[in-house]
Design brief:
Helices cover 55% and strands 15% of the residues. The chain is built from 16 helices and 11 strands.
Length: 413
């Protein structure tokens, strides 16, 4: 009975956490090359995760800036005089550009409307009707000189008409690069002319690109005074004004534009302030996040597979060591904890290195692009934990496999 009591007092074997950490460190340092290659998968996965999320946040910030710079500085004024008076003509006065440009915060402004041609009136590069150079799908736009500055046009050749040509109602035109290609106009050195119906127009400039109103690239633009002289005033509600402002001034200009144009009838105009692009920005950001998160998840899976494969090989190579530990009293759960600790340590180490490389990548890319790097603190804090979790999950099966090895079988090997 005494012996039984003594036997019952024998404490079961334990595996202290200090021993777990020391054994795990010894197992990793025993083969440093293999440990480094094992952690490489997690380094790449976590590094890609941090870099992708950081670059996505940085890119989204740049998208916000671009949206604000373009959309938040544009105001459109529509002519709605026909809704108030059915006999009202074009509500924009002749000096509409000058009236709006006197407002504080306005950079450029111009009036425009589409010209409605009579049936059979085509845009041609030859005076002969029915020639091969005739085009019936080219739009003609009447515009004041301020439209070109407000649209941010950049010319491939020549120049736009000025206020003097507009006052004289001169037969001049500015064409888009697409129109020039369709009409076969390759240079302005020969002073080419185009014909709209039977009316000749001298081409003074070719538009290569615009910041706004991209339809100018596929249109023929003539002075508004010339269009009024030849085709008359536009139809009711056809006229519009494009206004560009300094950043932050657009809402104020939208409120003041109607009164500045016609103090006697401000109700003849409807000013459209810049829209809030939050919805579009959110959709773009969500699409980028989903795409890049999928890429980061794939890299993490590849890293987990690498850790699982290497850990399983280590279990097979260390069968004798495992059997000796079991023979000395180690339990199955002790073996499981040891191998999980090793794989978790490799994952955590890979997560730390990967986080550092990911942050460094975001900073370098932003520096070369002259951007402001944006990295959410939660991303940087969670990345090492993700590496640890990846290592632990990857080591579950090898650790379970090691715990099932019987001491007698292991010692026979």
């Amino acid at each position: 009975m005494r012996r039984v009591r003594r036997t019952g007092c024998i404490k079961p074997s334990v595996f202290a956490w200090r021993d777990v950490l020391s054994e795990s460190l010894a197992g990793m340092l025993q083969r440093p090359g293999r440990s480094a290659l094992t952690a490489l998968g997690t380094v790449l996965g976590v590094g890609t995760f941090v870099a992708v999320l950081g670059l996505t946040a940085t890119t989204s910030s740049q998208i916000d800036t671009r949206f604000n710079a373009l959309s938040a500085t544009e105001v459109t004024v529509e002519d709605i005089a026909h809704e108030q008076d059915e006999f009202a003509g074009l509500a924009f006065p002749a000096d509409a550009d000058a009236r709006i440009e006197r407002l504080n915060g306005v950079e450029h402004a111009g009036v425009y409307w589409p010209v409605r041609l009579a049936p059979g009136e085509l845009v041609r590069s030859s005076a002969i009707a029915g020639s091969d150079g005739a085009q019936n799908s080219i739009d003609v736009v009447a515009a004041s000189p301020g439209v070109f500055a407000a649209a941010g046009t950049r010319l491939a050749e020549g120049r736009v008409y000025d206020a003097y040509a507009s006052e004289l109602a001169a037969p001049v035109a500015v064409i888009g690069a697409g129109v020039a290609d369709r009409l076969g106009i390759t240079t302005l050195e020969t002073h080419p002319a185009i014909f709209i119906g039977s009316q000749p127009f001298t081409v003074t400039g070719v538009v290569a690109d615009t910041d706004r109103k991209a339809d100018l690239l596929l249109s023929v633009v003539v002075p508004r005074t010339t269009a009024e002289r030849i085709w008359g005033r536009p139809e009711a509600g056809g006229g519009k004004m494009l206004i560009t402002t300094s950043l932050g001034a657009a809402p104020q200009i939208a409120e003041e534009a109607a009164t500045a144009l016609r103090p006697d009838h401000p109700e003849y105009f409807k000013a459209v302030p810049p829209p809030d692009p939050k919805t579009l920005r959110g959709q773009v950001g969500d699409d980028l996040n989903q795409l890049f998160l999928l890429l980061a998840a794939i890299c993490l899976v590849i890293g987990a597979v690498g850790i699982a494969n290497t850990t399983l090989v280590a279990v097979l190579e260390r069968t004798g060591e495992i059997g000796l530990r079991r023979a000395l009293g180690a339990r199955g759960r002790h073996i499981t904890v040891q191998f999980l600790a090793e794989s978790g340590a490799l994952g955590a180490l890979g997560g730390l290195v990967g986080t550092s490389l990911g942050v460094l990548t975001v900073v370098i890319v932003a520096m070369f692009r002259n951007w402001t790097p944006v990295i959410h603190p939660v991303t940087a804090a969670a990345a090492p934990a993700i590496g640890l979790a990846t290592g632990v999950i990857a080591g579950l099966y090898p650790a379970w496999r090691a715990a099932r090895i019987q001491p007698a079988e292991a010692l026979r090997r």
